[in-house]
Amino acid sequence: MRRLSALQDEVNSWRGLSSRVTDALDLVELASLEQDETILGDLGVEVKAIESALEKMEFQVRMSGKHDRSDALLSIHAGAGGTESQDWTEMLLRMYLRWAEGRKYGTEIVDSMPGDEAGLKSVTMLVEASWAYGYLKTERGVHRLVRLSPFDSAHRRHTSFALVEVVPDIDDSIEIVVRPDDVRVDVYKSSGAGGQHVQKNSTAIRLTHEPTGIVVTCQNERSQAQNREMAMRILRGRLYDLERQKQEEEQARLKGEHIDAGWGNQIRSYVLHPYKMVKDHRTSHEVGNADAVLDGRLDDFIEVYLRQTAGQSAGETT
């Protein structure tokens, strides 16, 4: 039903745009007869609006990956650097929350591990919206921050790293097979902030997928069953992402290319000192207003990357 609803919305959008074009052509004919400046002004405004809507809809058509329409599970992990990187992880979480808020996307923090002194060691959020995965998959990789450290008494410049992982929230109709015998389930008490229920009862869940070594934790829901369900959703998404990476590496090997999927493969740098700039190293797109980017203004980076890689995700399979 969700798939049907999404397709109906898409068809209705194209039909609505077609109707606007027809109305605009009628307006052109009227303007040519009347030579009315007011009609010509209205026509110019409508043409620009139609061009903008068409550009947006054509852009979405370019996202042809199998799960681009899906909800997304975005995880952020602090890199080496202790408190600095943990604070950077929390800054990135705020950035993505603001980005989602600006698009009116639903969000939910499904798991988080607080830092030793400040920030977060890791966090996973669910982003619920059509095309959430299609857009956010562009954020996968290492993000680098350069700034004067607020945690350094000498106020020296520090470089911090955080790894962003994005997987689709795959529903039960997708054939990702998770054998019960392959998953070890550990139950423990929540270590985060919360009410007495989560602190006194063993509601937190840790799933270990033994064939791959993937470990997923979830402790933010109130019941053990809810945490287990969410952890399984994350595990299924990560298994899908692992298979996708294997296919990409095989395609690159056949093409003679080398893909370094290691920790040091930074995709974007956020420089706050001695100057302010955010630069995407994959596309060379950069902006000087780093504060706006950290406040959620990511669309330019996302769209430039998607335009440069249009069609490459078409072969994504499970």
Q: What spatial form do the alpha-carbon principal axes imply?
A: globular
**According to CATH, what is the class of the largest domain?**
Alpha Beta
Count of helical stretches = 8
Helix content: 40-55%
User: Order of strands in the sheet with the most strands?
Assistant: 2-3-1-5-4-9-10-11
SSE-based structural type? alpha+beta
Q: Provide the low-confidence segments as ranges.
A: 194-198, 257-262, 313-318
Radius of gyration: 23 Å
End-to-end CA span: 21 Å
Biggest sheet statistics: 8 strands, mixed
Structure described in brief:
Helices cover 43% and strands 23% of the residues.
Could you walk me through the main structural features you see in this protein, from its secondary elements to its overall organization?
The chain is of the alpha+beta class. The chain has three domains: 2-62; 72-169 and 271-315, Alpha-Beta Plaits (2-Layer Sandwich); 180-250, Double Stranded RNA Binding Domain (2-Layer Sandwich). It contains eight helices and eleven strands. It has helices at 2-34, 37-62, 83-102, 132-136, 196-200, 224-255, 290-294, 299-308, and strands spanning 72-78, 106-114, 120-128, 141-148, 157-168, 183-188, 204-209, 214-218, 266-271, 277-280, 286-287. It has an eight-stranded mixed sheet with strand order 2-3-1-5-4-9-10-11. Strand 10 and strand 11 form a beta hairpin. Helix 1 (2-34) runs antiparallel to helix 2 (37-62). The chain is globular, with a radius of gyration of 23 Å. The model is unreliable at 194-198, 257-262 and 313-318 (pLDDT under 50).
